[in-house]
Structure formats: structure tokens, C-alpha cells
Amino acid sequence: MSNSKIPSRPATSSNEDEPPLARADEVADLLRSIQDLIVPFVKAADADANSKPSGHGTVVSGGAPRTTLVEHHPPQKLQSLMDLELPDEGKGKEGVMAMAKQILQYSVNTWDQGFMDKLYHGNNAIGLISELLLATLNTNVHVYSVSPALTLIEKHTTRHLAQLFGLHRAPSASTTSTTNPPHPHPANPTSNPHAGGISQPGGSASNLLALLTARNTHFPSSKSSGVGTIMQGTGEGGATKRPVVFASAHAHYSTSKAASLLGLGDGAVRAVPVDAGGRMTGAALAKAVQAAREEGELPFFVCATAGTTVMGSFDEVEGIAEVCAREGLWLHVDASWGGGVVFSERLKEEKLKGVERADSVAVNPHKMLGVSLTCSFLLVRDVRVLHKANQVSAGYLFHGDEDGGNVVEQEEAEGEKAGKGLQDGREVWDLAELTPQCGRKGEALKMFLGWLYYGRTGYAAMVERAYDTTAYLAKLVQEHSDMTLISEQPPPCLQVCFYYAKKGTLVEGNEGKKKMSKVTSDICRRLMRGGFMIDYAPGEKGLFLRVVVNSETRRGTVEGLVKAIEEEGEKVWRDVVET
């Protein structure tokens, strides 16, 4: 027996010399104070909805022109108005609340009916609660041990989303290439238990992860040896071939950025021409793939878009899937914008036919569904492919299956872990192994609680209502003598695109194009003063107006918007075109 003495415990704890913790009281105090600012901010937007049908938002008294929607200043002016100095000595609650007032005053109130500028809109009550809950937990959803509940919620949410898109259905033999399959599919032709996904910080990140996973799946050596290995000896007689990517000419720019970030180069993205409705078709893709092969290039990835950024077009996914199956190409569907239609059986059948044959799908609930920003997912038919393409050895974080929660056996050699994929039924619980991210906020909770609150049918009703309002706005524009609709009627998604032109006559020629662009941009600028924010985009005849409807947009609001455009447009047209 050892003769060493066990040190005695101190008679008193060191905590007795410190004040008691009162964090809960501090939280309660600050929450009450911020609530007194936030609730009136939302109430103001609710009240302003009653004024929108008139074509003018409620004017707020103060030192600058302001509506409930926004008090807009250029950056230099705003810097002088806001107290942005960071002090040596803290200003406490009073300083924080004073700054919170300034932030609310000088920010766009996206709860306002007049905000129809971007592909998202104001938050909702369940969104605020979700963000508060996440901030309270303040944890990282990278390993199961520190975020058990949020890990289960993310896996459950992504699995159910994948099922809505039909990714749990394994493709039939007719949809899988026998010459160059992208990855092994489950044997069961009707059920796939591995469909799921991972949350990402936005649609661009989801598209990047899709391309990364496809690259590492098609070219496994690129994961460890770099993209240079793809170019070495892949052609006949040792000739090299450049890997290329295909996307619609109207696809989001994130595909090109992803190709650049992954070492393929943005020049590897082949822009496939679109039809009159702004859609990439299977026939156009087949022609582009054939041309690339004839040029000695190596096609491997196709990005179809479900809801393009400007016109809202849905590519012909079913025909594109046929080409991908025949050619052995990874099919990714960027449904960041239009994916919300999956909750509506009617719209899903109309807009997303063939999406169940995709290898991956990006969807952003923070757009059409109004979930709190940011909330985005990459969904796949087999999460094991994500694991194989992204998992690396990090023993300081990923500790094997000592909790029974990790998929990689403890005794596997470190070198094997970096490249080994999961081919059995075990699941991934340490979710950072599925993505390049290590720091991961539990964004899936926001979708989960929203789904719990509204239900699938509630989301379906929201989306269908937004589509109905969009069609109504397009009808108003189409019937107006001074507006020229360029969207399809009804529009394919929630954008309505059109020109303002007196008597529907656009100014022609290069000089006319400049004038039309100025008319459009000036109208947008003047609308902001009256409580409406809309956007514009480039077109053949110059910049055109683009309005984005959402599930909260009322018919009276779009009626008021048309009135406001009519009023401001007449003034601008006179100043720009007629003088």
C-alpha cells in the first residue's frame, strides 16, 4: 500500500468567495427589453399592410423620408448616422438597446408587405422561436456527443425531405448507366433506406458540396492526390481529357464558382442553351454532351435548375435524367428556389417530374417556405456517398464508435479511414463527416419546427397561395396598357417580369435599350420612397422590372404595387423618354 497522503479537501469552496451566478436573470431582463423593440417593429409592418392597396406605404414621422419598409441612406450617410464606435468600457444594457433601436430604424423591414425584392421574405413567429432556441443551446452540430438532439433532428428532417423528393426510391435499371454508373445504387428497386442529406449554409454551399461529392465519386484519386490526376492519362493512348460540367445558360452563378473553387476552373462549365421559356431540355443537354465528347472533353456532372433566379423557369428534369442515365453523368438538381413546391402534390407533379431520379438535390426552405435565414439542405439518394467523398481522419474530434454512434470502426487504420466509404447499414451520426464544414449551426431545427408547426399541408397551402397571387399580379400587368409582360402566364414560379412602357411600346435600338434601362431603374428607386421594394434584371430590351411574390403577399398589395408603378412610371417616362 502506498504511503502517499491523500490531500484533504479545503474547508470552504472557492466559489464562496465569488458572487452567485445570475445569468438567468440577465437573460430575462434583456429579453424583455428587446421584445419591447421587436414586437412594435413587426406590428408596424402588420399595420402598414392596410395602406398598401392605395399604392403608398405608411409614412413614418422623423428627420428623414421614411416608410415602415425602410429609411434608406447611401453608405457614407448611414455611417454618419449610426454610432458604430466600439468602446473600451462596455455600455451595458442601455448601450445595446440604443444600438438595437438604430439597427431596426435603418434596416429593411422584410416583414412589410412591400418587400418583394429578393427570393426570401420576412420571418415568422416560429422562426424567431427557432433562432432563440438555437442561440440558447449554442452548440455545434459536428459530432453527436455535443449535439445529440439536434443531430437526430437533422437526420430526421433530411430523410423526410429526401422522401418528399422521391430520393428514397432506388432507380430502375433503365435509369442507371451500365457503362459508367456514378455510384452503386441500393439493390432494392422500390425502397432506399440511405436517402437523406445534410444542412448547408445556403444554396451556393449546397451546390458546391454536390459538385465536390460528384468529383470525388467519379474521380476518387482527386480526393487525396488533387485534380491534376484527373487530367493524366484518362483518354485513349494516354491522352488527357478535361472534366466538364453542364448547366443551363440561366443557372445560378454558384455552379461556376464551385467549379473554380474545386480546381476544375469556371471555364469547365458548359452553358446549355435554353428554350423560349428559359428551360434547359434533355435534347439540348444531349447535344451539348455530344459536342463536348467530340472535343475530347470528359462530361461528368449536370446541374438542372428547378426555379431559375430571374425568370423562375424549371428545367426539363425528366428528359435531362434520361441523358444522365445514358451517359453516366451525376444529376444534381438545384431546387434552391423552386424546391418548396415539393410540399404541394399538384405543383410537385407539374414542376418536378423526374426529380426522384436525381443523385442530389439542393433546396432552401428559407426562400419559398419562409423559414428563418439561413436554412438550406443538400439531399442525396445515399448519404454513404457523402461520407465516402468527404470523410477524413481527425482523431481529435471523430472518436470512432465509442458511443455506439459513429460509423467508422475504432480499429481501422488511419490511412484507410480517409478514403473508406460505408457499404453496410450503419449510419453516420457525426454529421461533420458528411461535409467540409466543421463549425455547424443546427439550421435543420428551423425547418423541423416549422414543419411541426404548420404541417406538410400548411406549407402546401402557403406555396399554392403564393402561386395564385403571382398569377393574379401577372394578369394585372398583362391587362395594363402601359406594361409589357415578359414572364409566361401563368409564371412558372413566384417572379413576375415586365417592362413599363407607355402604351406598351418599348423604345427600340441601342439608345432605346439605355432609355428602357433607366426607366426601369428609376422606377425601382422611386418606389422605395413609397414603401415598395422590387428588383430588376437585364433583358434583350434593357433592364426590366422583377417582382417576387411570397406566401404572405396579399392581392391588395399587388394591386397597390401596380398603381404605384403606374404613378411613378408616368413621371419617369416623361422625364427619360419624352423630353
UniProtKB/TrEMBL annotation:
Signal peptide: none annotated. This is PLP-dependent transferase. It comes from Viridothelium virens (Speckled blister lichen). GO terms for biological process: carboxylic acid metabolic process. The keyword Lyase applies. Belongs to the group II decarboxylase family. Gene3D superfamilies: 3.90.1150.170, Type I PLP-dependent aspartate aminotransferase-like (Major domain) (3.40.640.10). It holds the Pfam family Pyridoxal_deC. GO terms for molecular function: carboxy-lyase activity; pyridoxal phosphate binding; transferase activity. Residues 1-21, 171-200 are annotated as: Disordered.
